[in-house]
Design goal:
- This protein is mainly alpha-helical.
- The protein has one domain.
- The protein is 67% helix and 1% strand.
- It has 15 helices and two strands.
- Strands 1-2 form a two-stranded antiparallel sheet.
- Helix 3 (58-73) runs antiparallel to helix 7.
- The chain is globular.
């Protein structure tokens, strides 16, 4: 079986599993959303107090552990880190802010389109535009410098912490928060969510599935390998949504979405640009963190902090659209991304 066939099958399975998670209780068009689920986890452990988005999502735990298991099995687990850690942390914050202005990560963006949400088209346009800007800086020599081998135990800590979160979820102590209404209250059973995460984590680890990587590689090398996985998710989630009667074509009345086209575009442009600088989309960062990559762990920690900032300071959008604070934050994110892109490129170093 060819590599392209494998990634098409993997994308198809991800699309179908995502719709099945909605069938079993997850929010509509949100079988998987890395940004939304990290935001829920941030709320679940009390980093923000938005009561409608607080829950330790087992899907995230499954993604990390599934990637770890397969990486260990295939001897691909490598503990490495040290590549511009604080810049990566800040980029994680920026990517999360952009995602929460749009209301979804790149994976949810394509799942929204597969469910008929046409607002995702503006998100995709912004996402591709952001990647294009990032690629321009890659061509100018952008680099966050190399990472280094670290002790093996350091690579095991993050998967271990993820398992600890699962224990907290099951034990449900009083200091863990659970939404009683809103998106955080809509969830598939723990066992189903965890199993789904494990399967998708293993598939994404094996195929290197990445929403950003597919578009970036097409722009840089005219290589469509990863991009077909991206397309496969849309096609198969579309088929599954039709089969379950979830498909709802249009811009208005879409679940956990808004129709403010400009900020859908700009929010995802921030996500695309920031993810190129990080070397992968939020899903890819989670998978790499499961493989022992400490730089990706730092990026994920930045995303969790970004979720807390977004909800504590009113940056996250709602069904009514982007907030003024969120709009200002997106502008600041663009300025930050330009500074980081320029200052870490050869055009700056030569000066």
């Amino acid at each position: 079986m060819g590599n392209k066939t494998k990634i098409i099958i993997a994308g198809g399975i991800v699309g179908i599993i995502s719709v099945l998670l909605v069938y079993f209780g997850n929010p509509a068009n949100m079988g998987f959303c890395i940004a939304c689920f990290l935001r829920d986890i941030a709320g679940g452990i009390g980093l923000h107090r938005a009561e409608v988005v607080q829950y330790i999502r087992p899907e995230i735990i499954g993604l990390i552990v599934g990637a770890s298991i397969l990486a260990l099995k295939n001897k691909e687990f490598q503990s490495r880190g040290g590549s511009s850690p604080f810049i990566r942390f800040m980029l994680g914050i920026v990517v999360m802010i952009g995602a929460l202005v749009f209301l979804g990560c790149p994976l949810r963006m394509v799942l929204r389109l597969g469910g008929g949400d046409l607002n995702a088209l503006l998100g995709i346009a912004g996402f591709v535009s952001g990647i294009w800007i990032g690629v321009k800086f890659l061509n100018k020599g952008f680099n966050l410098k190399r990472n280094y081998k670290v002790t093996k135990i350091e690579g095991y800590v993050f998967p271990g912490v993820s398992i600890g979160l699962l224990v907290l979820l099951i034990a449900s102590p009083a200091f863990i928060f659970f939404s009683e209404s809103g998106p955080g209250s809509l969830r598939a059973p723990i066992a189903i969510s965890l199993l789904a995460g494990l399967i998708v984590g293993a598939l994404a680890q094996r195929t290197r599935l990445c929403m950003v990587g597919g578009t970036r590689d097409m722009m840089l090398f005219n290589n469509s390998h990863l991009l077909v996985g991206f397309i496969s998710i849309i096609v198969f989630s579309f088929i599954a949504n039709l089969s379950f009667g979830f498909f709802n074509l249009g811009f208005a009345d879409q679940p956990i979405a808004h129709t403010d086209g400009l900020w859908n575009f700009l929010g995802m442009a921030v996500v695309g640009w920031g993810s190129v600088l990080l070397g992968g989309c939020p899903l890819r960062q989670l998978i790499l963190s499961g493989e022992g990559n400490i730089d990706s762990v730092i990026s994920i920690m930045g995303m969790i902090m970004g979720a807390a900032i977004a909800h504590n300071f009113g940056l996250a959008s709602s069904g009514a659209g982007a907030t003024f604070n969120g709009q200002v934050a997106v502008v600041i994110c663009f300025i930050f991304l330009w500074i980081i892109s320029y200052s870490n490129s050869e055009i700056s170093v030569k000066k």
